[in-house]
Amino acid sequence: MPDEKDQESVIDDVTALAKGLKTTLGEFFSPVVTTMYPEEKSPRAERYRGRHYLRRYDNGLERCIGCELCAAACPVGCILVIAAENTEEKQVSPGERYAKTYEINMLRCIFCGYCEDACPVQAIVLGPEYEMSDVSREKFIFTKEKLLEPLPPDVEARLKSKEQK
Amino acid sequence: MTIDGQSVTVPPGTLIVEAAKNVGVEIPVFCYHHKLDPVGACRLCLVDIAPGPPRPQTACTTPVAPNMVIKTQSAMAVQARAEILEFELVNHPLDCPVCDKGGECPLQDFTFRHGYPTSRIDGPRLHFKKPIPLSANIALDRERCVLCYRCTRYYDEIAWEQELTTGQRGVQSFITSQFDQPLTSIFSGNIIDLCPVGALTSRVWRFESRPWDMTQTGSVCSKCAVGCSVTLWQRRGQLVRVTSRENDDIDEGWICDRGRFDYTDVNDPKRLRVPVVKGAGSTWNTAIDALAAGIKGKGPKLGISLPQDLTNEEAFLFRRLLDGPLKGAKVKMHGRTALPEPDPNQLLIKEIDDARVIVVVASDTEKDVPVVNLRIKKAVSKRGAQLIVVHPDGVDLDRNPHTVHVRNAAGSAAAEVEKLASHELLKSPGGPVAILFGDGHGSEDAADLAAACAELASKVGGKVMPLYRATNERGALDAGVAGWDKLDGVQALLSWGPPPTAGIPSSVKFLATWDHLQRPDHSRAAVVLPATTFAEQQGSYTNLEGRVQFLRPPIPVAEPLKESWEVLTELAVALGLELGYTGIFAVQRDAAQTLPGLADLAEPPSPTPVPTPVLIGPAHP
Question: Rounded CA gap, A104 and A24, in Å?
Answer without folding.
Answer: 49
